[in-house]
Specification:
By secondary structure, this protein is an alpha/beta fold. It contains 15 helices and 11 strands. Strands 2-5-8-1-9 form a 5-stranded parallel β-sheet. Helix 10 (216-231) packs across helix 11 (241-257) and helix 11 (241-257) packs across helix 12 (265-276). It starts with a helix and ends with a helix.
């Protein structure tokens, strides 16, 4: 069994009923993307992020966002050391491999914006000095949509656009919740994943996933989907060029973790919803009568699917 399949098996055994979500997180890690986990309190978002990070022998930091957290608490500060009689640069928790930004929407817009440079350019600037972040670097953020009016600050479009996926965590099934009761009743909050994967393994996957073939017909298919979001009558702001690149990379990642060296149309279709729902801005009419996921389904059905044989 390959290390990637061993990792997926270990994560699926440790995180109950989240196979699809784990795959999305793996794709984001391999493709240098970031993930926003969204669900009601108590659904296991933080536990899932911690368990995922614990599977890697890299650095992991958790930052609990609150309104009084400052940008320097995220990126770091430059302070004067009286003994050395010089300024010393101390990087913040963002200088890690996996950063858990817990309840990110509780941070002020100023603090939220401190992650923009890190998420896009994999670097931070402190008092004019630029520091490269470790590789790989991934942000896993969480937020509770039910508390939108209780001391929270909605993420702006520019911030949302930097997340490769927005993953909605649904309630577990009856049997999945029974398993949760059996496995975690004595040690709630215990991380059960094993540290299996070295950072060098992740770097190898990052280089290999770029070799996954994308046929010109698949590129055309992706562009047609992107263009259709911009032309839909109930969409005010369609997907950006960053989103089209993200869809290409996500489809490559999905093909790679499933053991294929080429992208097929199903890889693209499966990536559209988690990649696009948080990027679409609906018109006033669209907000009243439709959900973004329903509009995306209409768009996918309206675009002709290329024959899989052409994708090879």
């Amino acid at each position: 069994m390959s290390k990637l399949n061993l990792l997926r098996k270990n994560l699926n055994e440790s995180i109950v009923g989240r196979e699809k979500e784990i795959d999305f997180m793996l794709i984001a890690l391999i493709q240098g993307g970031h993930v926003l986990l969204e669900s009601v309190p108590g659904s296991g978002k933080t536990m899932m992020a911690k368990s995922f990070a614990h599977a890697f022998k890299g650095n992991f930091k958790r930052l609990q966002f609150t309104p009084d957290v400052l940008p320097s608490d995220v990126t770091g500060i430059s302070y004067f050391d009286p003994k050395a009689q010089e300024f010393v640069l101390r990087p913040g928790p963002v200088a890690t491999n996996i950063l858990l930004a817990d309840e990110i929407n509780r941070g002020t817009p100023r603090t939220q914006s401190s992650l923009l440079e890190a998420m896009e350019e994999k670097q931070v600037t402190i008092d004019g000095e630029t520091i490269a972040l470790p590789e790989p670097f991934m942000v896993i953020a969480t937020q509770n949509p039910v508390e939108s009016q209780q001391g929270t600050f909605s993420l702006p479009a520019a911030q949302l656009d930097r997340f490769l996926f927005r993953i909605e965590i649904n309630y577990p099934s009856f049997e999945e919740e029974r398993r949760i009761l059996k496995e975690f009743s004595h040690n709630p909050g215990e991380v059960k994943t094993s540290s299996l994967i070295d950072i060098e393994d992740v770097k190898l996957w990052c280089s290999e996933v770029r070799k996954v073939t994308v046929h010109e017909d698949i590129e055309t298919y992706i562009l047609q989907i992107i263009q259709a979001t911009r032309q839909h009558v109930q969409v005010e702001l369609g997907l950006s060029s960053r989103a089209s690149l993200a869809l290409l990379h996500a489809a490559q990642g999905h093909a790679y973790i499933n053991g294929r060296s080429y992208v097929n149309p199903d890889d693209v279709k499966k990536m559209v919803a988690p990649l696009a729902t948080h990027r679409l801005i609906l018109s006033a009419e669209g907000l009243l009568i439709r959900e973004p996921s329903h509009i995306l389904n209409d768009i996918i059905e309206s675009v002709q699917t290329p024959v899989e044989a052409m994708a090879r």
